[in-house]
Batch of 2 targets.
Target 1
Amino acid sequence: MPTAAMPTSTMLHGLPETRIAAADWQAVEDGLGRDGHAVLPALLTQAQCEELAGGYGDEARFRSRIVMERYAFGRGEYKYFSYPLPGIVEGLRQSLYPRLAPIANRWHAAMRIEARFPATHDEFQEICHAAGQRRPTPLLLRYQADDYCCLHQDLYGDHVFPFQAIVLLNQPGRDFEGGELLLAESNPRQPGRADVVPLRQGDAVVLAVNHRPVRSARGYYRANLRHGVSRLRKGERHTLGIIFHDAR
């Protein structure tokens, strides 16, 4: 939602709830179950992408800045938004969560994980905040030539929503080269595998945060997933990360 601290601009209009509602959510669930990820094409417009990427230098929007190399996370940097979130970021959180929560509950039931997720993000946020997870986790990431991100999981606390979304804000081939999104799966019963997820500007990928259920003859077991970014060969690449659980 617009706030007094934010300028009126294209960023505050045309929120993508209609595109989220129109997505084939059965296909999304099928992709998540099969591959641990699913793409939502053209979730944001070019103008929305450019507005978000262009706001990276506005320190008033963020609570902290992380230089990856200092923590052996890779090279590049990212910034966590502060509350209140920009309208389009809050809109994505609020609109994606209720589509994903039923899938999350089915996954937890299959993997025999006790936690269940309420119908709305506001309710889930109350659970996080009651447990001391009060710091916002949506973030903007910036990569320049030779930057990369090591394979990792975004957990942040005891209450972890099993999905997150990543939106590419620049156009491959025009704004940057390299910098592919990488997903790696470690399966205790099969050889591991890795995927490169091709994205265009405005595409979002929904991915499993830590594991996915895999069917076996005796039910389901858990395959572990991590994600990262390959080395950027040239240009500049920004992404928006939508994480639904807050951090301690």
Note: Residues 14-243 form a domain with the Jelly Rolls fold (CATH 2.60.120.620).
Target 2
Amino acid sequence: MERKELRNLLERLSAGAADVDEVMTKLRGEPFRDLGFAKLDSHRALRQGIAEVIYGAGKRPEQIAEIAGAMLADGQKTVLITRMSAEAAAVVEKTVPLSYHEMGRVGIAGEMPRPDGRGKIVIATGGTSDMPVAEEAALTAEALGNEVTRLYDVGVAGLHRLLSHTDDVMTASAIVAIAGMEGALASVIGGMADCPVIAVPTSIGYGASFGGLSALLSMLNSCASGVSVVNIDNGFGAAYLASMINHIGVN
């Protein structure tokens, strides 16, 4: 059960539109559901505001299908599945209503929610090669109920490309800046924006980039204030944090 649903139920109880037995039935669910190979945290949305997400890598397609099906059966309207292969998606979609996005390796079971955040989240990349990580971030943010603006291939090698989107940068509630190579995009955006900037280093670059470590260290050493950094290629983690920022003050 999500917070909004619980609040609505309690308001109905207070107004006399619902009885105690109805409320007790809704709240009777266990804090987790044991599937044998997995324990679903069914109270996470109530506790944290965002329901549990399925990490697809390393799980058998049948396991993903059973977990997603159980979540949907328990009333979760949107189930986000990250790091999901196309082969797994082909199996899961036979039993679960699934929308699969191959570039970001993201599956969304159920329905995509309407945006209910305070504003918009901007997802920006240094280059086209960063788009798989960016799509993981963008789809995650959308699945968590955010309006997303994508600014792809706006890196520092051609700064005028980013400057042509100054209005988008200046009106965002949160920005996810994704870049490999030397990771300079986060610092540039951090010097322009008046909102939190979440930097994502990617494993894109030549030999001395060390699989994204060079970009990670550059972003950690950014001289721009208001820039935080997540792990290499972690588009999901960045979008999750951006969504939390965009939902501050939203019931």
Note: The first strand starts at residue 33 and ends at 34.
